[in-house]
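Quick start: read one record
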Amino acid sequence: LWSEKRISVQELAKYPELDMRSMGCWLSKEIPGNFKRIGCVELIDPEKRLDKAYLTEITLKSTFSTMRFMLEQAAIRQIPVRSVALPILGTGNQGIELYYIAVPLIHQCIRALETIEGLEEITFFERNPFKAEELIQILKETVDAKNEAVPEVFISYCNAQSRIAYQMRDAVTRNG
């Protein structure tokens, strides 16, 4: 954000509109520019960043629910949040396949749009054009399947166990 928009997240964090760092998140005061606020989810302890399994587990299990909690709290406190721009976490340095992040994230976002007062739009963004195209396809497939049952299982695994996880996913899918 600093190199492209000259926005210092560190400075915004000093005086947030909604300070819930004890819960791992905060929401900035209004800022001039392309978007009004920055919502920040800070769940990763810098001391544990070397442990890739920990990083992946925390990112996947906590980010979705913490982001939604922050938006719910903003609505309760009458801090207007109409739209959200959201990166797809975990698909960069963590190397998690986009599909495994995007599908549960899309479902969480649909639930947030349905339940959080005032929230009208969530926009995903991805700088890599190939990943962006893949994300568009996943989004279309997910929205087209919206009338079907929402997945009830999220399989968390480390890269070393990806073969077993894929087999588990296939077995669960085959059995409805």
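The two ends are 43 Å apart (CA to CA).
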